[in-house]
Design goal:
Elements lengths: L5 H32 L3 H11 L11 H8 L3 H13 L3 E5 L7 E5 L1 H26 L5 H9 L8
Helix pairs in contact: 1-5, 2-5, 3-4, 5-6
Length: 155
């Protein structure tokens, strides 16, 4: 394939559209979360991921797993955890079975804030998708996002 190959051009255009959709959604949610809850999208995502942990086997995530889940480097995730810990939204403690391991849990205040912010996040996501669906280049991607994890319909 050459640099002017139509398949490469289409692939690049598709990537640009996907990137534009992501950027628009993230920016819209960011503004809503910041305005109503003083939370960034990354902070909300981290609280959400950590709130899903449980005490059973494999229930607590290692920092690398958390970083992967919120799509940040380990060092950026650690800094984010520290900021939320300083705000009283997270707490760290030693793993009871491996003293080298450190777990991070959402505090009661963090769970309360997450519960309050979830409807804002969900509404902003819906608004951003609705706005993007009016753009002919983004509409197919919106439909694809909306079809993910959609319940199967019986015919």
């Amino acid at each position: 394939m050459t640099a002017t190959d139509p398949a490469l051009t289409a692939l690049a255009q598709g990537w640009c559209a996907l990137s534009a959709l992501h950027g628009r959604i993230e920016a819209h949610i960011e503004r809503a979360l910041q305005a109503k809850h003083d939370l960034s999208v990354r902070e909300y995502s981290l609280l959400d991921v950590l709130s899903r942990q449980h005490d059973g086997e494999g229930g607590h995530l290692q920092m690398k797993q958390v970083a992967d889940a919120v799509v940040l480097s380990q060092s950026a995730t650690t800094r984010l955890v520290t900021r939320l810990e300083d705000r009283g939204l997270l707490e760290r403690y030693l793993c009871p079975t491996d003293r080298r391991g450190i777990y991070t849990n959402v505090t009661a205040a963090g769970l309360k804030l997450l519960e309050e912010a979830r409807p804002t996040n969900d509404a902003a996501l819906r608004e951003a998708l609705d706005m993007a669906s009016r753009n002919p280049q983004l509409a197919p991607l919106v439909r694809a996002v909306e079809s993910l994890n959609a319940p199967a319909q019986d015919d």
